[in-house]
Specification:
Layout (H helix, E strand, L loop, with lengths): L1 H18 L1 E8 L11 E4 L4 E3 L5 E6 L4 E6 L2 E2 L3 E2 L11 E2 L21 H11 L1 H4 L8 E3 L5 E3 L1 H7 L2 H26 L2 H8 L5 H8 L4 H6 L2 H18 L12
């Protein structure tokens, strides 16, 4: 009899677990601009979580559940899970003003070189190096139409040390250019916005998951962003990333 009851309970719990799915989104204040952190998100099924510093949350629910958002112990209306159209982006706006960490400034015009402009200027500065080619024998025609060897090319063939230095210099400039391109796409501000990581965890993530040049160059925006997001999920499993402290349920 005990085994039968245990089997029934196990099947029930297994069915409950399979029927659960995740809902996530962002909580904004009344301006729909400022994020609201430390909002307690409670489901009628018994699960709860708290929004992080970016106002984001994620919670496991059943289709029959409803969600309630608590801020300063004041609840919102119930939001039936069955009516949520996009469980990945269920964003809400609370009827409260929250002072954001940043304020709007008057229009400012900033003139700065883009990565492409810097790269082009670098190429122009070291044009002789980037256009350097391994010397070889070439023929030339004299004024009287007689063919012969190009004297300059002949001399360069035997300038072994100079040729080696030029080749190494070009390789170093190309490597630096590739590293700058990776820094341009895989920059700290951009990665923080996608992952929500803060230093020192963010600094470690940038070192561990720095992509190579070929992937950075060939991937489109969606693929590159997805790589960063997927890498952050893996990173959180192996690196102790601090999160907001959970409070007791009401």
């Amino acid at each position: 009899m005990n085994r039968f009851l245990f089997l029934i309970v196990s099947l029930f719990l297994h069915g409950q677990a399979r029927s659960q799915f995740s809902i996530g989104g962002t909580v904004f204040d009344i301006s729909k601009v400022n994020y609201v952190e430390n909002v307690r998100v409670v489901s009628t099924g018994g699960m709860f979580t708290i929004t992080d510093s970016m106002g984001r949350y994620q919670i496991l629910v059943n289709k029959s559940d409803s969600l309630i958002f608590y801020y300063n112990n004041k609840p919102t209306m119930k939001f039936p899970v069955a009516t949520v159209e996009d469980p990945r982006h269920f964003n809400i706006s609370l009827s409260i003003p929250v002072k954001g960490k940043y304020s709007l400034m008057k229009e400012v015009t900033v003139f700065a070189k883009s990565y492409r402009e810097d790269s082009l200027e670098n190429r122009q500065t070291y044009a002789s190096v980037f256009s350097y080619a391994k010397p070889g024998l070439q023929s030339s025609l004299s004024s009287d139409g007689v063919a012969g060897a190009d004297l300059d090319q002949l001399i360069n063939v035997f300038r072994f040390r100079y040729n080696k230095r030029m080749r190494k210099f070009r390789e170093r400039l190309e490597a630096e250019e590739q590293e700058k391109f990776i820094n341009y796409r895989f920059n700290k501000t951009f990665v923080r916005r996608i992952t929500g990581l803060q230093s020192p965890a963010l600094d470690t993530f940038l070192v561990w998951y720095r992509p190579d040049y070929a992937f950075t160059r060939d991937s489109d925006e969606i693929s590159f962003n997805q790589y960063i997001l997927s890498a952050s999920y893996q990173f959180r499993k192996i690196y102790p990333v601090p999160g907001p402290a959970k409070k007791n349920e009401p």
